[in-house]
Predict the structure.
Amino acid sequence: MSKHWYFNQDGAQYGPVEETELVRLINSGDLPPGTPVLREGSKHWSPARNHPYLTDKEEPTLKPIPKPTTSEPDRTEKPGKISLHADEKFYEQVVAELGGDSRKQGLWLKAQTKAQGDIDKARFLYAEWRVEQMVEKDRERHQEEEEKLRAKKEVERKRELKAAQKREDLTRKRAQQHMDEERKRLEKEAVEREREARKEKEVLAKKKAQQQAEDEAGLNSLIETREKATACVASLFRFGYEVLSCKFVNGKPFWIIRDPHLQKLVDVPQDGLVRYVHQQMTLYSYMLNCPRCDTPLEEVREDTWECPKC
């Protein structure tokens, strides 16, 4: 806590003085207990008697009373509170003006007119009016400084807002660039997938067309040998067998034959047709003659089951 004080005596302000010096002045009677005092850093003047620690301490050996000072307490430490005698410097300037030739002639003439020739009264009036002018001018100066300070702060605030907006715009621009790059990447991947799908579809279509061509070629080849297949199965016709059509299974030709023994349609591969006929003829081996020319079955070729006579 600060140990320096200001005090007011006979309309003049003194200080700062150390606390021990102020205690000595009060205890010695040089200052009455009701003297207004102000602690450095405080905002309010109050009588010394309201501070027991100023009147109850023992009297130490201290320095003499300092001369009045023209400096006022720091306004930054007491915002909103100005010393009751902050206009002391203006009175000093007025004294200098009255003692020299720098007085305001118009104001001095007004004071003389108001005082009706009384020089002392004119001096008092001049001092009062001149101090009021100085105080007003000082107040305007402070207002101008405050306005400049506010304007400067406003400029700084706008500059900060502009910088923040610029940073935000930059961040938004970078985010948009990232989104655009991501969108282009996804579109490129989609195009690649579509190209691959189209290519795969073309390959499948080509394979399918090739398979169909092969099936058609095989079917044509199979149709050309239909008469041979019919002749191969002809020995079974009298038992109710019949070659109906042909088909392909996994690219392999099959003959569709009505089998009366199984009472259903059977699929016989082309390379197994002779074996199938031989198996079926074995079932009907009790019929020993050819169904067309009555040739004995022993003379029929077993590899094709064709009758040599018919």
Observations:
- The chain has three domains: 1-85, 87-196, 225-299.
- The two ends are 142 Å apart (CA to CA).
